[in-house]
Design brief:
Layout lengths: L25 H15 L5 E5 L14 E4 L5 H11 L4 E7 H7 L1 H9 L5 E6 L29 H4 L5 H8 L5 E6 L3 H16 L5 E6 L3 H4 L3 H15 L3 E4 L13
Parallel strand pairs: 1-2, 1-3, 3-4, 4-6, 5-6
Antiparallel strand pairs: 5-7
Helix pairs in contact: 1-7, 3-4
This protein binds iron/sulfur cluster.
The site of iron/sulfur cluster has 12 residues, from helix 8.
């Protein structure tokens, strides 16, 4: 049994084994979040909330206060917590189903109101936990359990581009970006900016992360990374779309 370090850290891998499928992107996203929490020293100031779907498996990943919500409701719960305890940092974690489908109205309204919360949305182009059905971000032509002939955009429309859309809704002070698990240093930097934006009280912060789901993609290791880098990253542009920290993919110093 692993012994926790004398100085507790929010992210201590031996006591928090990976609960996701082999090759799943969630573990990479959560590692980036955990490392940022510890490096920023905000372990005791944060409330971590996770939504339904595979993202809920993160509910006990961190040694910090956490809550688990259902069916797209992590955004309003984070808003409520922040409004009642503005000195705390609230971080909501969700999938593309929770954020862009059943919880989309909450996401849009929180963005319009420039709520000072941080939201992280993992986009793996399908409903993971329920077996791989089409989600709002499924690629055109992508085969899923509910699109066995490939997603037909004439019937279902085109994939949701969350960061692009939210960029048009938010006011100055918002931080909006998209990262990918294939570029870890950039992912960690963008996540740090999304946290720092709330720490500084600037406004709404949203980070979408492109991630792998080999179980439902039915892919081996090589095919998984090829699909992420050759297909998904071409459909969804990676980068910072709105930032109060200045243009460009720059390192932001942390005090
Ligand atoms: S179903 Fe997909 S998203 Fe869910 S844990 Fe497995 S690989 Fe990850």
């Amino acid at each position: 049994m692993a012994i926790a370090p004398a100085t507790p850290k929010s992210w201590y891998l031996p006591t928090k084994p990976h609960k996701f499928c082999p090759g799943c992107g969630h573990g990479i996203v959560l590692k980036a979040l955990g490392e940022n929490i510890d490096e920023l020293g905000i372990q005791n100031d944060i409330i971590f909330g996770c939504d339904i779907g595979c993202s809920l498996l993160a509910w006990d990943f961190f040694a910090c206060d956490s809550t688990q919500t259902h069916h797209g409701r992590v955004t309003p719960v984070m808003v409520g917590l922040k409004r009642s305890r503005p000195e705390l940092l609230t971080v909501g974690y969700m999938g593309d189903g929770g954020g862009y489908s059943i919880g989309s109205q909450h996401l849009l309204n929180a963005a319009v109101r420039n709520e000072t919360i941080t939201l992280i949305l993992v986009n793996n182009t399908n409903y993971g936990m329920t077996g791989g059905q089409m989600s709002p971000t499924t690629l055109p032509g992508q085969v899923t359990e509910t699109t066995p002939l490939g997603r037909d955009t004439a019937i279902t429309g085109y994939p949701t581009k969350g960061p692009e859309f939210l960029s048009t809704l938010t006011s100055d002070g918002a931080y909006i970006a998209r990262a990918t698990v294939s570029k870890y240093k950039q992912l960690k930097r963008f996540m740090r900016n999304a946290l720092r934006n709330q720490i500084e009280g600037n406004g709404f912060s949203f980070l979408e992360v492109l991630a792998t789901c080999p179980t439902n993609w039915r892919t081996n290791a090589q095919q998984t990374w090829n699909f992420l880098e050759d297909e998904i990253e071409k459909e969804f542009r990676v980068g910072e779309m709105k930032t109060p920290f200045g243009k460009g993919d720059k390192e932001v110093a942390v005090d």
